[in-house]
Specification:
This protein has about 400 residues and is of the alpha/beta class. The protein has one domain: 3-Layer(bba) Sandwich (FAD/NAD(P)-binding domain). About 35% of the residues lie in helices and about 20% in strands. The strands form four sheets. The protein has a six-stranded mixed beta sheet with strand order 4-12-13-14-11-15, with helices on both faces. It has a five-stranded parallel beta sheet with strand order 6-2-1-10-16. Strands 7-8-9 form a three-stranded antiparallel beta sheet. Helix 1 packs parallel to helix 5 and helix 1 packs parallel to helix 12. The longest helix has about 30 residues. It is globular, with a radius of gyration of 22 Å. The protein starts with 11 loop residues before the first strand and ends in an 8-residue tail after the last helix. Bound molecules: flavin-adenine dinucleotide. The site of flavin-adenine dinucleotide (FAD) has 34 residues, from helix 1, strand 3, strand 11, helix 11 and helix 12.
Length: about 400
């Protein structure tokens, strides 16, 4: 029997973190007329560099199309780089290179019917922020919470302010403060690997000096215990024009075409000891890359020599694994906050988007009186755990193809 559950009063959702997953959820809730507020610790949308491109696969695309209006999703697609499917696999001398691992990885990458969309990360955030001015609060760092006797949760922020909500969603990324309190069993493991990434803009010098093969499409360059991904980001039009032509009122910052590159692999290959801090300036990152690649092909090295140094970033590759189910409450989580994974599989953001779309669907059923709140959260959490388990394992396998079996997290 399809029994309707008595419609509850309007629920209030608080989202901690205005990253990819938190903003996608916010858009989904807005589309379904569910009240929400978003609290973000950044001072403003562009106060911190977020210098990389992000691949949005079929799962992420489907999730975005669930959470965004048609016009908004169209704006997202238009703001992505021109798509292509083929991938060059090369060695450090720019010779074509393949082996068993790479072949299976390529087969997987090339049978996808829907090509990945490639978004400039800051632009994606700007697209997802459109229309949320009234609900988003920057410079609000979540500190702690208290469950109240009226069934609500009181959230506290660094500026001394508080907010009461019916449902709280931790979308505060890899070092989630909220998850550390609510899900202390969800440990984060440092894999011992690192990412180093940057952007090289298409200047006259860059076009002349960088190998032509690296100036279009995606290339993966394999070396011992480290790989380099090179991806070209050429936009269809200026982002300003794209925003102006959209029916959505979005503010997109200008971005020139660029070549994105990212190393992923063993930190010792970069000359870093096990315990060395990754808190280092961009000149130090620049030197580490020059040193590691000194014997590589000259027109590959130009990519690093001509990098915009302000975009250079180094981060540790961390992973977590939500092992066992838990008793659901009105405090839940999505994305990296609850299931961080190696970027080798290009799946972290896509999983965060998946979570946001499932949670949107379930909360809209609650709003319509078709599901009770705790069952909706429990059902969402089961789907989130199952999907993230698979994507974490796939990301580990992708890591093995890219840089060998070094320091993988337990499954
Ligand atoms: C180099 C690199 C390349 C990647 N490429 C891909 C890719 O191609 N495809 C893919 O799917 N994934 C990719 N990923 C992974 C992807 O970036 C993450 O999985 C994704 O950003 C997770 O989204 P999220 O919303 O969970 O967290 P985030 O996007 O990290 O957002 C968390 C937000 O919470 C805010 N916050 C943190 N703490 C607090 C607090 N206490 N109070 C309030 N706000 C807080 C942060 O400022 C941030 O805005 C890549 C990662 C890296 C490092």
């Amino acid at each position: 029997m399809n029994r309707k559950i008595k419609k509850q009063r309007q629920i209030q959702v608080a989202i901690i973190g205005a990253g990819i997953g938190g903003l996608c959820l916010a858009q989904g809730l807005k589309k379904n007329n569910i009240a929400f507020q978003v609290f973000e610790k950044d001072i403003s949308p562009n106060s911190r560099p977020q210098g990389f491109r992000i691949r949005i696969d079929e799962m992420g695309q489907k999730a975005l199309s669930v959470c965004l209006s048609e016009d908004h999703y169209q704006l997202f697609k238009d703001s992505c780089a021109i798509p292509y499917i083929t991938v060059n696999t090369l060695n450090t001398q720019l010779e074509s290179f393949t082996n068993e691992h790479i072949n299976s990885w390529l087969e997987y990458a090339e049978i996808e019917e829907i090509p990945d969309l490639r978004a400039n990360r800051i632009t994606m955030r700007e697209v997802l922020l459109a229309g949320l001015d009234k609900q988003i609060h920057f410079n609000k760092e979540f500190i702690n919470y208290e469950e109240l006797s009226n069934g609500k949760t009181m959230l506290r922020f660094n500026d001394g302010t508080c907010y009461e909500a019916d449902i709280v969603v931790a979308a505060d990324g890899i070092n989630s403060k909220l998850c550390a309190l609510r899900f202390p069993q969800n440990n984060l493991t440092d894999t011992g690997n690192v990412n180093v990434y940057g952007k090289t803009f298409y200047s006259f010098e860059a076009k002349k000096q960088i190998a032509e093969i690296l100036q279009s499409r995606t290339s993966v360059i394999f070396d011992k215990e480290i790989s380099l991904i090179v991806d070209t980001m050429q936009f269809k039009d200026s982002l300003l024009n794209i925003a102006n032509q959209s029916k959505v009122n979005a503010e997109l910052s200008h971005m020139n075409d660029y070549i994105y590159w990212a190393f992923i692999g063993n930190r010792e290959r970069l000359g870093l000891s096990k315990d060395e801090s990754l808190q280092m300036g961009q000149d130090k990152i620049f030197s580490l890359v020059q040193e590691m690649t000194h014997s590589w092909h000259t027109s590959l090295k130009s990519l690093f020599q001509l990098v915009d140094r302000s975009t250079l970033t180094i981060t540790a590759v961390k992973t977590s694994f939500p092992k066992e189910s838990w008793v659901s409450t009105k405090i839940t989580a999505l994305g990296d906050a609850i299931h961080a994974m190696s970027p080798a599989g290009g799946a972290g953001a896509n999983s965060a988007l998946y979570d946001a779309s499932i949670l949107t669907e379930n909360l809209s059923k609650v709003n319509l009186g078709e599901m009770d709140l705790l069952s909706a959260i429990a059902d969402y959490e089961e789907k989130m755990r199952s999907n993230s388990r698979n994507t974490i394992l796939d990301s580990q396998k992708a890591g093995e193809s890219l840089y060998g079996k070094a320091s993988m997290a337990e499954g």
